[in-house]
Design a protein that fits this description.
Number of helices: 14
CATH architecture of the largest domain: 3-Layer(aba) Sandwich
CATH class of the largest domain: Alpha Beta
Structural class: alpha/beta
CATH topology of the largest domain: Rossmann fold
Number of strands: 14
Distance between the termini: 14 Å
Largest sheet: 8 strands, mixed
Shape: globular
CATH superfamily of the largest domain: Glycogen Phosphorylase B
Order of helices and strands: EHEHEEEHEHHEHEHEHEHEHEHEEHHH
Radius of gyration: 22 Å
Strand content: 15-25%
Oligomer: single chain
Number of domains: 2
Protein backbone atom coordinates (compact mmCIF):
# COMPACT_ATOMS: atom_id res chain seq x y z
CA UNK A 1 0.00 0.00 0.00
CA UNK A 2 1.30 3.45 -0.86
CA UNK A 3 1.75 6.30 1.57
CA UNK A 4 -0.18 9.46 0.92
CA UNK A 5 -0.80 13.13 1.70
CA UNK A 6 2.29 14.53 3.37
CA UNK A 7 4.01 11.19 3.90
CA UNK A 8 6.98 10.00 1.91
CA UNK A 9 6.24 8.07 -1.28
CA UNK A 10 8.66 6.37 -3.61
CA UNK A 11 7.59 7.45 -7.08
CA UNK A 12 8.79 5.80 -10.28
CA UNK A 13 8.49 8.16 -13.25
CA UNK A 14 8.77 6.47 -16.66
CA UNK A 15 9.26 8.63 -19.76
CA UNK A 16 11.65 9.25 -22.64
CA UNK A 17 10.83 12.96 -22.28
CA UNK A 18 13.05 13.39 -19.22
CA UNK A 19 16.18 15.41 -20.07
CA UNK A 20 19.73 14.32 -19.31
CA UNK A 21 22.63 16.78 -19.41
CA UNK A 22 20.64 19.50 -21.20
CA UNK A 23 19.61 17.04 -23.92
CA UNK A 24 16.90 19.36 -25.22
CA UNK A 25 13.64 17.85 -24.01
CA UNK A 26 11.15 20.25 -22.43
CA UNK A 27 11.72 20.76 -18.72
CA UNK A 28 8.11 20.38 -17.59
CA UNK A 29 8.31 16.72 -16.52
CA UNK A 30 11.64 17.33 -14.85
CA UNK A 31 9.97 20.18 -12.96
CA UNK A 32 7.19 17.85 -11.80
CA UNK A 33 9.83 15.47 -10.41
CA UNK A 34 11.77 18.32 -8.80
CA UNK A 35 8.78 19.67 -6.92
CA UNK A 36 7.59 16.22 -5.83
CA UNK A 37 11.05 15.64 -4.47
CA UNK A 38 10.98 18.99 -2.66
CA UNK A 39 7.74 17.89 -0.98
CA UNK A 40 9.76 15.06 0.56
CA UNK A 41 9.02 12.23 -1.86
CA UNK A 42 11.69 10.02 -3.43
CA UNK A 43 11.58 10.13 -7.22
CA UNK A 44 13.41 7.76 -9.56
CA UNK A 45 13.20 7.93 -13.34
CA UNK A 46 13.32 5.25 -16.03
CA UNK A 47 14.12 6.79 -19.41
CA UNK A 48 13.25 4.10 -22.01
CA UNK A 49 14.42 4.78 -25.54
CA UNK A 50 13.14 2.93 -28.57
CA UNK A 51 16.21 3.73 -30.67
CA UNK A 52 14.48 4.06 -34.04
CA UNK A 53 12.06 6.59 -32.61
CA UNK A 54 14.92 8.45 -30.94
CA UNK A 55 16.78 8.74 -34.24
CA UNK A 56 13.66 9.85 -36.15
CA UNK A 57 13.17 12.62 -33.58
CA UNK A 58 16.87 13.61 -33.94
CA UNK A 59 17.45 13.20 -30.22
CA UNK A 60 20.83 12.51 -28.67
CA UNK A 61 21.33 8.88 -27.68
CA UNK A 62 22.85 8.34 -24.24
CA UNK A 63 24.55 5.15 -23.14
CA UNK A 64 22.69 2.63 -21.01
CA UNK A 65 23.32 3.33 -17.38
CA UNK A 66 22.42 5.29 -14.28
CA UNK A 67 22.70 9.08 -14.22
CA UNK A 68 22.14 11.42 -11.28
CA UNK A 69 20.87 14.97 -11.68
CA UNK A 70 19.46 17.13 -8.87
CA UNK A 71 19.58 14.07 -6.59
CA UNK A 72 17.22 12.18 -8.88
CA UNK A 73 18.27 8.75 -10.15
CA UNK A 74 17.76 8.40 -13.91
CA UNK A 75 17.99 4.90 -15.39
CA UNK A 76 18.60 5.34 -19.13
CA UNK A 77 17.86 2.18 -21.14
CA UNK A 78 17.99 1.77 -24.93
CA UNK A 79 16.03 -0.82 -26.90
CA UNK A 80 16.25 -1.83 -30.56
CA UNK A 81 12.74 -3.29 -30.47
CA UNK A 82 9.78 -1.45 -28.92
CA UNK A 83 9.85 -3.29 -25.58
CA UNK A 84 8.78 -6.68 -26.95
CA UNK A 85 10.81 -8.74 -24.50
CA UNK A 86 11.75 -8.66 -20.81
CA UNK A 87 12.47 -4.98 -20.22
CA UNK A 88 13.97 -5.57 -16.77
CA UNK A 89 17.10 -7.23 -18.16
CA UNK A 90 18.68 -3.85 -18.94
CA UNK A 91 17.67 -2.21 -15.66
CA UNK A 92 20.10 -2.12 -12.71
CA UNK A 93 20.36 -5.45 -10.89
CA UNK A 94 19.03 -3.92 -7.67
CA UNK A 95 15.88 -2.59 -9.38
CA UNK A 96 12.63 -3.93 -7.93
CA UNK A 97 9.23 -2.58 -8.94
CA UNK A 98 7.91 -3.55 -5.52
CA UNK A 99 10.03 -0.80 -3.95
CA UNK A 100 7.70 1.88 -5.34
CA UNK A 101 4.41 3.18 -3.98
CA UNK A 102 3.35 4.87 -7.22
CA UNK A 103 4.24 4.58 -10.93
CA UNK A 104 3.63 7.50 -13.32
CA UNK A 105 4.25 7.28 -17.07
CA UNK A 106 4.47 10.00 -19.72
CA UNK A 107 4.51 9.60 -23.51
CA UNK A 108 3.50 6.42 -25.41
CA UNK A 109 6.83 4.68 -24.92
CA UNK A 110 6.69 5.41 -21.19
CA UNK A 111 3.20 3.95 -20.84
CA UNK A 112 3.98 0.84 -22.90
CA UNK A 113 7.16 0.30 -20.89
CA UNK A 114 5.22 0.74 -17.65
CA UNK A 115 2.82 -2.00 -18.68
CA UNK A 116 5.75 -4.37 -19.14
CA UNK A 117 6.76 -3.66 -15.55
CA UNK A 118 3.42 -3.52 -13.74
CA UNK A 119 0.84 -5.01 -16.08
CA UNK A 120 0.34 -8.01 -13.80
CA UNK A 121 1.04 -6.24 -10.50
CA UNK A 122 -2.44 -5.22 -9.40
CA UNK A 123 -1.31 -3.73 -6.10
CA UNK A 124 0.86 -0.92 -7.48
CA UNK A 125 -1.04 2.35 -8.11
CA UNK A 126 -0.42 3.61 -11.64
CA UNK A 127 -1.02 6.94 -13.39
CA UNK A 128 -0.81 7.08 -17.20
CA UNK A 129 -0.52 10.49 -18.80
CA UNK A 130 -1.85 11.70 -22.14
CA UNK A 131 0.24 13.84 -24.50
CA UNK A 132 -0.57 14.69 -28.08
CA UNK A 133 1.78 11.86 -29.11
CA UNK A 134 -0.54 9.38 -27.37
CA UNK A 135 -3.51 10.62 -29.41
CA UNK A 136 -1.41 10.26 -32.57
CA UNK A 137 -0.56 6.65 -31.71
CA UNK A 138 -4.21 5.87 -31.01
CA UNK A 139 -5.60 7.46 -34.19
CA UNK A 140 -3.02 7.54 -37.01
CA UNK A 141 -3.16 4.33 -39.10
CA UNK A 142 0.58 3.55 -39.15
CA UNK A 143 1.10 3.95 -35.40
CA UNK A 144 -2.32 2.53 -34.55
CA UNK A 145 -1.56 -0.74 -36.32
CA UNK A 146 1.53 -1.49 -34.25
CA UNK A 147 1.14 0.29 -30.91
CA UNK A 148 -2.47 1.28 -30.16
CA UNK A 149 -3.39 -2.03 -28.54
CA UNK A 150 -0.51 -1.84 -26.06
CA UNK A 151 -1.28 1.79 -25.24
CA UNK A 152 -4.97 1.08 -24.65
CA UNK A 153 -3.98 -1.62 -22.15
CA UNK A 154 -2.10 1.05 -20.20
CA UNK A 155 -5.18 3.26 -19.96
CA UNK A 156 -7.28 0.27 -18.90
CA UNK A 157 -4.76 -0.68 -16.20
CA UNK A 158 -4.24 2.89 -14.99
CA UNK A 159 -5.87 3.90 -11.73
CA UNK A 160 -5.85 7.53 -12.96
CA UNK A 161 -5.20 9.23 -16.30
CA UNK A 162 -3.40 12.58 -16.34
CA UNK A 163 -4.22 14.55 -19.50
CA UNK A 164 -1.79 17.38 -20.15
CA UNK A 165 -4.59 19.74 -21.23
CA UNK A 166 -8.37 19.94 -21.21
CA UNK A 167 -8.38 19.37 -24.97
CA UNK A 168 -6.44 16.12 -24.52
CA UNK A 169 -8.76 15.10 -21.66
CA UNK A 170 -11.74 15.40 -24.00
CA UNK A 171 -9.96 13.46 -26.76
CA UNK A 172 -8.93 10.53 -24.57
CA UNK A 173 -12.46 10.27 -23.17
CA UNK A 174 -13.76 9.96 -26.72
CA UNK A 175 -11.22 7.27 -27.61
CA UNK A 176 -11.00 5.16 -24.46
CA UNK A 177 -14.04 3.76 -22.60
CA UNK A 178 -11.88 3.51 -19.48
CA UNK A 179 -11.06 7.23 -19.29
CA UNK A 180 -14.38 8.85 -18.47
CA UNK A 181 -14.28 8.75 -14.67
CA UNK A 182 -10.57 8.60 -13.91
CA UNK A 183 -9.17 11.37 -16.13
CA UNK A 184 -7.99 14.73 -14.80
CA UNK A 185 -6.05 17.64 -16.27
CA UNK A 186 -2.37 17.83 -15.26
CA UNK A 187 -1.45 21.26 -16.57
CA UNK A 188 1.88 23.02 -16.22
CA UNK A 189 2.66 26.36 -14.67
CA UNK A 190 5.70 28.58 -14.71
CA UNK A 191 8.09 29.84 -12.07
CA UNK A 192 6.74 33.00 -10.45
CA UNK A 193 10.20 34.55 -10.74
CA UNK A 194 9.85 35.07 -14.50
CA UNK A 195 6.60 37.03 -14.23
CA UNK A 196 7.24 40.70 -14.97
CA UNK A 197 6.42 43.26 -12.24
CA UNK A 198 2.91 44.69 -12.02
CA UNK A 199 4.29 48.14 -12.96
CA UNK A 200 5.43 46.81 -16.33
CA UNK A 201 2.02 45.27 -16.99
CA UNK A 202 0.39 48.60 -16.18
CA UNK A 203 2.83 50.43 -18.44
CA UNK A 204 2.13 48.14 -21.40
CA UNK A 205 -1.60 48.36 -20.79
CA UNK A 206 -1.43 52.13 -20.84
CA UNK A 207 -0.23 52.54 -24.40
CA UNK A 208 0.35 50.51 -27.55
CA UNK A 209 3.95 49.74 -28.43
CA UNK A 210 5.67 51.86 -31.05
CA UNK A 211 6.63 49.93 -33.04
CA UNK A 212 3.97 47.34 -32.25
CA UNK A 213 5.89 44.10 -31.63
CA UNK A 214 4.39 40.70 -32.43
CA UNK A 215 6.42 37.69 -31.28
CA UNK A 216 6.45 33.96 -31.72
CA UNK A 217 8.74 31.28 -30.30
CA UNK A 218 8.82 27.93 -32.05
CA UNK A 219 10.82 25.23 -33.70
CA UNK A 220 10.40 26.19 -37.33
CA UNK A 221 8.66 23.09 -38.64
CA UNK A 222 5.46 22.72 -40.68
CA UNK A 223 2.99 22.10 -37.87
CA UNK A 224 3.98 25.30 -36.07
CA UNK A 225 2.22 27.24 -38.88
CA UNK A 226 4.56 30.22 -38.76
CA UNK A 227 3.79 30.75 -42.45
CA UNK A 228 0.15 31.37 -41.49
CA UNK A 229 1.27 34.03 -39.02
CA UNK A 230 3.47 35.71 -41.64
CA UNK A 231 0.65 35.79 -44.18
CA UNK A 232 -1.79 37.10 -41.59
CA UNK A 233 0.54 39.91 -40.51
CA UNK A 234 1.19 40.89 -44.12
CA UNK A 235 -2.56 41.21 -44.77
CA UNK A 236 -3.45 43.10 -41.59
CA UNK A 237 -3.24 46.82 -40.91
CA UNK A 238 -1.00 47.08 -37.87
CA UNK A 239 0.62 50.47 -38.30
CA UNK A 240 4.34 50.48 -37.55
CA UNK A 241 4.96 46.86 -36.56
CA UNK A 242 7.74 44.30 -36.09
CA UNK A 243 7.22 40.54 -36.31
CA UNK A 244 9.96 38.80 -34.30
CA UNK A 245 10.33 35.07 -35.00
CA UNK A 246 12.44 33.27 -32.41
CA UNK A 247 13.64 29.76 -33.19
CA UNK A 248 15.20 27.70 -35.96
CA UNK A 249 14.35 24.63 -37.99
CA UNK A 250 13.92 23.07 -41.39
CA UNK A 251 11.35 25.68 -42.51
CA UNK A 252 13.60 28.68 -41.85
CA UNK A 253 14.58 29.31 -45.47
CA UNK A 254 11.04 28.76 -46.75
CA UNK A 255 9.76 31.31 -44.25
CA UNK A 256 12.43 33.82 -45.24
CA UNK A 257 11.47 33.31 -48.88
CA UNK A 258 7.83 33.95 -48.00
CA UNK A 259 8.72 37.17 -46.18
CA UNK A 260 10.65 38.33 -49.24
CA UNK A 261 7.79 37.38 -51.57
CA UNK A 262 5.34 39.39 -49.45
CA UNK A 263 7.76 42.36 -49.42
CA UNK A 264 7.76 42.72 -45.63
CA UNK A 265 11.46 42.10 -45.01
CA UNK A 266 11.81 45.44 -43.18
CA UNK A 267 9.15 44.36 -40.70
CA UNK A 268 10.24 40.79 -39.91
CA UNK A 269 13.14 39.71 -37.74
CA UNK A 270 14.45 36.12 -37.51
CA UNK A 271 16.57 35.61 -34.40
CA UNK A 272 17.41 31.93 -34.86
CA UNK A 273 17.95 29.91 -31.70
CA UNK A 274 18.79 32.18 -28.79
CA UNK A 275 19.30 31.57 -25.05
CA UNK A 276 16.19 31.34 -22.90
CA UNK A 277 16.95 34.52 -20.97
CA UNK A 278 17.18 36.41 -24.27
CA UNK A 279 13.82 34.96 -25.33
CA UNK A 280 12.32 36.31 -22.11
CA UNK A 281 13.88 39.75 -22.65
CA UNK A 282 12.44 39.85 -26.17
CA UNK A 283 9.01 38.89 -24.81
CA UNK A 284 9.20 41.75 -22.31
CA UNK A 285 9.73 44.06 -25.28
CA UNK A 286 6.76 42.53 -27.14
CA UNK A 287 3.05 43.43 -27.20
CA UNK A 288 1.46 40.34 -28.70
CA UNK A 289 2.43 36.66 -28.84
CA UNK A 290 0.96 34.47 -31.58
CA UNK A 291 1.45 30.75 -32.18
CA UNK A 292 -1.29 28.94 -34.10
CA UNK A 293 0.46 25.60 -34.22
CA UNK A 294 -1.25 22.22 -34.48
CA UNK A 295 -0.68 19.10 -32.41
CA UNK A 296 0.58 20.85 -29.28
CA UNK A 297 0.49 18.94 -26.00
CA UNK A 298 0.52 22.09 -23.91
CA UNK A 299 2.89 24.94 -24.79
CA UNK A 300 4.96 26.62 -22.07
CA UNK A 301 5.85 29.41 -24.53
CA UNK A 302 2.29 30.76 -24.23
CA UNK A 303 2.62 31.00 -20.45
CA UNK A 304 6.01 32.68 -20.65
CA UNK A 305 4.68 35.23 -23.12
CA UNK A 306 1.73 36.00 -20.85
CA UNK A 307 4.15 36.32 -17.92
CA UNK A 308 5.92 39.04 -19.88
CA UNK A 309 2.72 41.05 -20.40
CA UNK A 310 1.85 39.86 -23.89
CA UNK A 311 -1.68 39.29 -25.09
CA UNK A 312 -1.61 35.66 -26.27
CA UNK A 313 -3.20 34.09 -29.36
CA UNK A 314 -3.31 30.28 -29.50
CA UNK A 315 -4.95 27.69 -31.72
CA UNK A 316 -8.58 26.86 -31.08
CA UNK A 317 -9.15 23.27 -29.83
CA UNK A 318 -5.47 22.57 -29.41
CA UNK A 319 -2.87 22.55 -26.64
CA UNK A 320 -3.37 25.58 -24.42
CA UNK A 321 -7.04 26.06 -25.34
CA UNK A 322 -8.97 25.76 -22.11
CA UNK A 323 -6.42 27.73 -20.12
CA UNK A 324 -6.82 30.50 -22.68
CA UNK A 325 -10.47 31.58 -22.58
CA UNK A 326 -11.19 33.38 -25.82
CA UNK A 327 -11.71 37.11 -25.32
CA UNK A 328 -11.22 36.92 -21.55
CA UNK A 329 -7.56 36.19 -20.79
CA UNK A 330 -6.30 35.85 -24.36
CA UNK A 331 -7.58 34.69 -27.72
CA UNK A 332 -7.95 31.42 -29.62
CA UNK A 333 -8.17 31.24 -33.38
CA UNK A 334 -8.35 28.73 -36.21
CA UNK A 335 -5.07 28.09 -37.99
CA UNK A 336 -6.15 30.18 -40.99
CA UNK A 337 -4.38 33.30 -42.29
CA UNK A 338 -7.51 35.28 -43.15
CA UNK A 339 -9.17 34.59 -39.79
CA UNK A 340 -5.97 35.38 -37.92
CA UNK A 341 -5.46 38.60 -39.88
CA UNK A 342 -8.88 39.88 -38.81
CA UNK A 343 -8.14 38.95 -35.19
CA UNK A 344 -4.76 40.74 -35.26
CA UNK A 345 -6.44 43.97 -36.37
CA UNK A 346 -9.05 43.56 -33.65
CA UNK A 347 -6.39 43.16 -30.97
CA UNK A 348 -4.34 46.07 -32.35
CA UNK A 349 -7.37 48.34 -32.03
CA UNK A 350 -8.55 47.12 -28.61
CA UNK A 351 -9.41 49.86 -26.09
CA UNK A 352 -6.57 50.19 -23.59
CA UNK A 353 -8.82 49.41 -20.64
CA UNK A 354 -9.75 46.08 -22.27
CA UNK A 355 -6.05 45.36 -22.83
CA UNK A 356 -5.36 46.15 -19.17
CA UNK A 357 -8.12 43.87 -17.93
CA UNK A 358 -6.92 40.98 -20.10
CA UNK A 359 -3.26 41.33 -19.13
CA UNK A 360 -3.93 41.63 -15.40
CA UNK A 361 -6.42 38.74 -15.41
CA UNK A 362 -3.79 36.46 -16.92
CA UNK A 363 -1.09 37.71 -14.55
CA UNK A 364 -3.20 36.84 -11.51
CA UNK A 365 -3.84 33.36 -12.92
CA UNK A 366 -0.14 32.73 -13.52
CA UNK A 367 0.69 33.75 -9.96
CA UNK A 368 -2.01 31.47 -8.58
CA UNK A 369 -1.19 28.47 -10.79
CA UNK A 370 2.61 28.40 -10.57
CA UNK A 371 4.69 25.39 -11.57
CA UNK A 372 5.10 24.41 -7.91
CA UNK A 373 1.36 24.72 -7.19
CA UNK A 374 0.29 22.69 -10.23
CA UNK A 375 2.90 19.99 -9.57
CA UNK A 376 1.40 19.46 -6.13
CA UNK A 377 -2.11 19.55 -7.58
CA UNK A 378 -1.11 16.87 -10.12
CA UNK A 379 0.00 14.45 -7.43
CA UNK A 380 -2.83 15.25 -5.00
CA UNK A 381 -5.51 14.84 -7.68
CA UNK A 382 -4.05 11.54 -8.88
CA UNK A 383 -4.07 10.16 -5.32
CA UNK A 384 -7.65 11.24 -4.70
CA UNK A 385 -8.80 9.41 -7.83
CA UNK A 386 -6.82 6.32 -6.85
CA UNK A 387 -8.37 6.34 -3.39
CA UNK A 388 -11.94 6.78 -4.64
Amino acid sequence: MYKKHGKVMRILLITDLYPIENSGEPLVIKDFAKYWQEEGHIVDVIRPNFLLNTKIRHKKIFKDGVYFEDNIKIMNVNYVTPFLFDVTKKLPKDFAIGNYNLVISHMPSGSMFAMKLIGKCAGIPYVASVHNSDITVLTKPLYKKFFASALKKAYKRADAIAARSSVLADKIKEISPYAEYKTFVAASGINKDIIDPLELFEKKAGHRGEPYVISTVAKLIKRKNVDILINAVANAYLGNYVLRIMGDGEEMQNLKNLVKQLDIEDNVEFTGNIPHDEVLRNLTASDLFVLVSEGETFGIAYLEAAARANIVVATRNDGIDGLIRNGENGFTCDADADTLSILLERIYNMPREDVRKMLLTRRCELLEDSDRTLSKKYLDTALKIIEA
